[in-house]
Amino acid sequence: MAKKAFPLSKVYSLLEPGPVVLITVSGRQGMDVMTQSWHTMMEFEPPLVGCVISGRNYSFDILRKTRECVISIPTVELSSQVVGCGNTSGELINKFEAFGLTPQPASKVCAPLIAECYANLECKVADSRMVNKYNFFILEVVKAWTNPAIKNPRTLHHCGMGRFMVAGKPFKLPSKAK
């Protein structure tokens, strides 16, 4: 089969690692929530998550100063809120109010959980050595919450250029080859 060259500027759309998430922070400026899709699991225990947050993002400086956040995992039902949070600045509006999201107190960090999300991961910055060069934060999950009423969450996955897909039906592969 013949292959076609693919633009390097769009490689990210081939490797998106997981669901689109909402990251909340809280500082002197107040609370903010941003949409984020550039993240990856880095370790099982303690759970470490690496994520890239643009230095132009309002939440970037708050995370850098407070060194804590919450990663909230929305389902497809929150698509419009996810896109809205991604297309606006917390410097200009209160995204919780504007998009009908409910902040809830976390137990280990000051940043809020999002009540409407399937899961919430309270995080503290474990390593910031790559922030100056790559805007890459390594976060340790210090507390995790899920909504037990949601059995098979349908999560959003960013494909680039304003396109998303929804995670499909889960299935399990045989553990041993026969």
Question: Which helices and strands, and how do they pair?
Answer:
Elements: H1 12-15, E1 21-27, E2 30-36, E3 39-43, E4 48-52, H2 58-66, E5 68-73, H3 79-86, H4 95-98, E6 103-104, E7 113-114, E8 119-127, H5 131-134, E9 136-146, E10 156-160, E11 163-166
Antiparallel strand pairs: 1-2, 1-5, 3-4, 4-9, 5-8, 6-7, 8-9, 10-11
What does this structure look like?
This protein has a single domain, classed as Pnp Oxidase, Chain A, CATH 2.30.110.10. The mean pLDDT is 92. The chain has a 7-stranded antiparallel β-sheet with strand order 2-1-5-8-9-4-3. A two-stranded antiparallel ribbon has the order 6-7. It has a two-stranded antiparallel sheet with strand order 10-11. It has 178 residues and is α+β, with helices and mostly antiparallel strands. A hairpin with a 2-residue loop joins strand 1 and strand 2. The protein is built from 5 helices and 11 strands.
Q: Spans with pLDDT under 50 lasting ≥5 residues?
A: none
Number of helices, counting only DSSP H or I runs of 4 residues or more: 5
Helix percentage range? 10-25%
Give me the count of strands.
11
* CATH topology call: Pnp Oxidase, Chain A
- Radius of gyration from CA coordinates: 17 Å
Report strand order across the widest sheet: 2-1-5-8-9-4-3
Overall CATH class: Mainly Beta
Overall pLDDT score:
92
